[in-house]
Design goal:
87 residues
Length: 87
């Protein structure tokens, strides 16, 4: 084969490959930015869930303390309220 045939083909392929590589690189950069934004949003949501869970745990601790410290008194108060409703 004659090498003279390949020179025009190579001359056309070089810019095409360069354009394709640049386009691919931009696509990769765009996807990286998307993933960074998504990771930030996910981290923020996780922090919100953790804070919410902490608040719920604090409320449960308060309820447990009320029940264990004043369980009998609370039961008596509930019965007294029932008695008032019945009259």
């Amino acid at each position: 084969m004659n090498i003279g045939v390949f020179i025009p083909i190579i001359a056309l392929l070089i810019p095409i490959v360069a354009i394709a590589a640049r386009s691919y690189r931009r696509t990769i950069e765009f996807r990286e930015k998307q993933l960074e934004l998504q990771a930030g949003a996910t981290a923020e949501k996780a922090a919100q869930y953790a804070a919410h869970t902490e608040r719920l745990e604090q409320r449960v601790r308060v309820l447990e303390r009320i029940i264990t410290d004043r369980g009998i008194v609370v039961a008596e108060e509930i019965e007294a309220l029932r008695d008032q409703r019945d009259h």
